[in-house]
Amino acid sequence: METTSQHTSSPDRKQSAAAYRNLIVATIGFTLTFWAWNLISPLSGDFKERLGLSDFQQSLLVAVPVLVGSLGRIPAGALTDKFGAKLMFPAVSALTILPVLLLIPARNSYGAMLAVGFLLGLGGTTFAIGIPLVNSWFPPAKRGLALGVFGMGMGGVALSGYFTPRIAKHGETLPFWIVAGALLVYSVIAAVMITDNPGRSVPTDSLGHRLGQAGRLRVTWELSALYAIGFGGIVAFGVYLPTYLKTWYEMSPTEAGTKAAGFALVTVVFRPIGGWLSDRVHPALVTAGALLLAALMAILQAFDPSLDPVGTIALLCMAAGLGTASGSVFALVSQVTPQAKVGSVTGIVGAMGGLGGFVPPLVMGAIYSAKDSYSIGFMLLSDLALAGAVYSYGRMRNLRRDS
């Protein structure tokens, strides 16, 4: 009997070891490529001075890689369904080296920077490669936490924001060389260590047909809307929080940047918590509770409380709610999406989440310009989050995978 037990548990142990190995390697790759994806933003002030850019030109320079990276997740997810992450992860990581190094000769020309920024968007697509990989390796009972841990790789954007300008002080082109070197080493490691689950289903139809099928699923757009609120809220605050703190609370740029980094850190930490909770409670319920918390905190912040302590608590609790929701939504993706379509659906949902972050800063800025107040903007955020909470609870908790 003991021999039989050892034989049956050995494949399980191998499967588990392979799952965690893939999770760790994919999370490191996600972090690195997101650092590369965000290389322009922390240095945009220097580029503005060097090239004599207007505020709009500076914003466009920062926005191009983010927009391309968000939209690029749609084909990246579908290609991962077809070719697997073992090919896609090292390939995309290696290809991202090219635009990173091209930033060096391009940095003296605005047109060249925009072109390179377009190519740099490639680094933002790895999210749609890692989700189907992790999803295929972990059983449903552990999938939420695993996807949440992988999602912590979005912290690469915050790492870039903190370290890139500090590295640049030791050499103008040094950040680009360091990130390119790290991507090269990682590409080799990923080619060796990432393995696709032997049991994964490989679609046989064309890329366009698969994307069309994913686009025709109602759940794709429901999940996209929820992720646009959760992750879109995170992106929006990452972009706009320093401006808000400097304008409304009259903080110094350094102090505002530090507070914004704290907000980003909370969202990163709470993403796996959202996944972990989703393994124990239906992810739709977790999403509803998290978005409700974000809505209530947005209402509180709309009344312009003093930052110490009420405003700080409200913003950090909002970060916790949005971070939790961004983790639980992808636990929901894995629960209600047919396995062979996870990559395609992930690509669309991930793209909508990234794009969802660009509307709120524009709205907040426009409202402040017109009304000299941020309260209306926070109330609009609370309305969106509350609508997402109600929809998650009312509709999404009853969904099951179609096939």
- Round the Cα radius of gyration to an integer and report it: 21 Å
The biggest beta sheet is recorded as: none
Number of strands: 0
Helix percent reads over 70%
Quote the distance from N terminus to C terminus: 37 Å
Rounded mean pLDDT score:
87
User: What is the helix/strand order?
Assistant: HHHHHHHHHHHHHHHHH
Approximately what portion of the residues adopt beta-strand conformation?
Answer: under 5%
Shape: globular
**Poorly predicted sequence stretches spanning 5 or more consecutive residues:** 1-8
**Count of individual helical segments:** 17
Q: In terms of structural class, how would the helical and strand content be classed?
A: mainly alpha
Describe the structure.
With 403 residues, the chain is mainly α. 82% of the residues lie in helices and 0% in strands. The chain contains 17 helices and no strands. It has helices at 2-37, 44-51, 55-83, 85-106, 110-120, 127-137, 140-151, 155-168, 174-193, 207-216, 218-248, 253-280, 283-302, 307-336, 342-356, 359-371, 375-394. The protein is globular. Mean pLDDT is 87; it is low at 1-8.
Give the gist of this structure.
The chain has 403 residues and is mainly alpha-helical.
Ordered list of secondary-structure elements with their pairings:
Layout (H helix, E strand, L loop, with lengths): L1 H36 L6 H8 L3 H29 L1 H22 L3 H11 L6 H11 L2 H12 L3 H14 L5 H20 L13 H10 L1 H31 L4 H28 L2 H20 L4 H30 L5 H15 L2 H13 L3 H20 L9
Helix pairs in contact: 1-4, 1-6, 1-7, 1-8, 1-9, 2-3, 3-4, 3-5, 3-6, 3-15, 4-5, 4-9, 6-7, 6-15, 7-12, 7-14, 8-12, 11-12, 11-14, 11-15, 11-16, 11-17, 12-13, 12-14, 13-14, 13-17, 16-17
